[in-house]
Amino acid sequence: MREAGVNLVSVGIFSWSRLEPTQGNFEFGWMDRVLDLLHEGGIQADIATGTASPPPWLTHRHPEILPVLADGGRLWPGARQHYCPSSPVYRAATKRLVEAVAEHYAKHPALAMWHVGNEYGCHVPACWCDVSAEAFRAWLRSRYGSVDRLNDAWGTDFWSQRYSSWEEVLPPRRTPTWPNPSQQLDFMRFSSDALLECYETEREVLARVTPEVPVTTNFMGFFKPLDYWKWAEREDIVSNDSYPDPADDRAGMRAAMASDLMRSVGRGKPWILMEQSPNRVNWRDVNVAKAPGLMRLWSYQAVARGADGVMFFQWRQSRAGAEKHHSAMVPHGPVESSSTWRQVVSLGRELASLEAVRGARSDADAAVILDWESWWALELPSKPSNRVRQVDQLEAYYSPLHERNVLLDFAQPDGDLSHYRLVLVPNLYLVSDAAAANIVSFVEAGGTLVMSFFSGIADTSEHIRLGGYPQPFRSLLGLDVIDFHPLGALTEVGLELVDGKLGRGRTWSEEVRLKGAEVLATFSDSELKGGPAVTRHRAGAGTAFYVATQPDPKTMDHILAMACSTAGIKSTAEVPRGIEVVRRSVRGKSFLFVLNHRDTAVDVPISDAGVNLIDGAQVHPGLIRLGPRDVAVIREGW
Ligand code: GAL
User: Fold this and answer.
1) Which of 265, 296, 363, 598 is buried deepest, with most CB atoms within 10 A?
2) Together in a domain, 485 and 384
């Protein structure tokens, strides 16, 4: 580990059956040895609470903690994460374990951070058992207070679903056809909260025993079941697990987007890349190896986008168990012949030269709105199109600006938008009154907005906002949407921009009637031929663009470039395609990360002099050559 420059290790994540081999009998000896060794070696520990995989004695004695699916089938033990989030038995057992672990290691000199659970919700994001049903009812009571208000919120007169008492209310179990959509939405809210309560049960113990030790739990990027805005508020430091697919040519963009989300949910504070694979994973159909330099490139990308730590799953490749074919820093074979090991070692050495970057932040002038509740509602079934997926639409907006090296934050629709000049709103289907007003006032105060189709359609109960689509944004956008014309998987619609450029739209089209907005593009074929497809409207001191389809990437880029120029937003640097540039700053010092995602060498123009922290070389204004997948971290100025 010292050879690889390791200075922080997660320990004991899935060790419950070793830490507490039988109920109430704790055995810490083996882990004491590990932690003592780490400490002697100058390495700190991110000690896990170990609660993500209940031991056999617990599920044997209490099979009722096993999770139940919507169709009533119960999951068996034998893998991991087999627990009902609402189970009082599971929660009490985790509390006892965490108390024992926290008290035992509170004073251990290696302890640097606590790692609660692991990837909450990864395999079991919700449970439909009777215990969960009871907890769901309690959650609903506190949200609505009375059965009448629940009936209103769920629109239960439709299909004769009106409840006369709380006892009749159930989680949305498997039904003949769609369960009530408002019920499903509330169940998603409840399920995210139920897991958050599990996390809180543990965090409270840790905060009491070791108030000075930071607490984290590892996130999974764009993980739909958990509202990470809410979760991140309860963490001292955000951490993320990132496994982009080396076979995916958009993987670099996707990893960047997840990193930006982590920086954003943590309110700009540095975060930790908690897990990434040194090389292959084991859980895809085909687990493509990382090309030489790719692990390094993606590690630096996380640092560029706000990470102050780079870690791996896993240290030593295991001999047995479900993940023995997952790569590790230390492979099955001899380390001398492993290029993975060599890359891990040299990354460790290099990262040590980035000390000055620690704590540095990036201020984005533009943000993309992401709201988990709207995501959940958007993807409920029985919509004009099931092909409108939140992450696809986020990517459609994020990707062109990522290519242009415009840094984007993610923001909440009801959050403070005042420090942004440009706000992008892809498919904010569900919106609260407060969030709608917030978005309108952002524009009126001078901001630039780009909103896509099927936004502002539903309220927080997932009831349609009547009065014409998109009701809360009609005057902001200066238009009415008369009706939706979603497009089939193989159908596209022609687009004609006012400057004569041609493009294509997919996924969606709609009939728009102008009420003050100006047309930037029209549909050039289909039954909507000649109708507005992209519009712009001045509202107050700002400008609101509306995009009534999913334009092809080139057209999207063109629209976003217009929006950037309206908002006065510039790229971090004008560089060749495939070069990613991000700046982090701290205490008046700035660091320019330059990442070559191409598999060929590229000459990159640099405008300011500086020093490349990785090799100590001076950088002069002009061109620097970056080899395939190579990176430079330039401390700007002398
Ligand atoms: C993560 C998990 C690790 C390991 C890894 C494999 O989801 O936290 O324990 O399973 O994936 O890629």
Assistant:
1) 265
2) yes
Is residue 242 within 6 Å of ligand 1 at its C-beta?
no
Are residue 306 and residue 439 in the same domain, yes or no?
no
Note the Cα 492 to chain centre separation in Å: 30
**Quick check: is 222 in a domain?**
yes
Is ligand 1 within 6 A of the CB of residue 323?
yes
Instruction: Point out the catalytic residue in the list 20, 119, 202, 580.
Output: 119
Residues 289 and 394 in one domain: no
**Does ligand 1 have an atom closer than 6 angstroms to the CB of 243?**
yes
pLDDT tens digits, 217-270: 999 999 999 999 999 999 999 999 999 999 999 999 999 999 999 999 999 999
- Looking at 299, 315, 331, which one is the last position of a domain? 315
- Write out pLDDT tens, residues 260-284: 999 999 999 999 999 999 999 999 9
Domains in the chain: how many in total? 3
pLDDT digits (tens, 9 = 90+) for 309-337: 999 999 999 999 999 999 999 999 999 99
pLDDT at 441: 98
> Helices in 356-513 by DSSP H: which ranges?
372-378, 390-403, 433-444, 474-477
- For the question of residue 119 being annotated catalytic, the response is yes
Tell whether the model's pLDDT for residue 638 goes beyond 80.
no
CA atoms within 13 A on the CB side of 549: 36
Q: Which residue has the tokens 């439909």?
A: 128
CA distances from 504 to 265, 273, 522 (A): 34, 38, 11
Nearest CA to ligand 1 atom 10: 323
Measured from the CA of 277, which atom of ligand 1 is nearest? 12
CATH code: domain of residue 605: 2.60.40.1180
Q: Is residue 108 part of a domain?
A: yes
pTM: 0.98
- Digit-coded pLDDT (tens) for 48-91: 999 999 999 999 999 999 999 999 999 999 999 999 999 999 99
DSSP, res 464: B
Q: Is the CB of 409 under 6 A from ligand 1?
A: no
Tokens of 226: 């958990």
Q: Is 277 found in the same domain as 397? A: no
CA-to-CA distance for 543 and 531, rounded, in angstroms? 21
Domain with 406, as residue range(s), is: 366-567
| Catalytic site includes residue 275 | yes
Both tokens of 564, joined, read 């950037």
Residue 215 belongs to some domain of the structure = yes
Taking the CA of residue 283 as reference, the ligand 1 atom at the shortest distance is: 12
Q: Has residue 337 been placed in a domain?
A: no
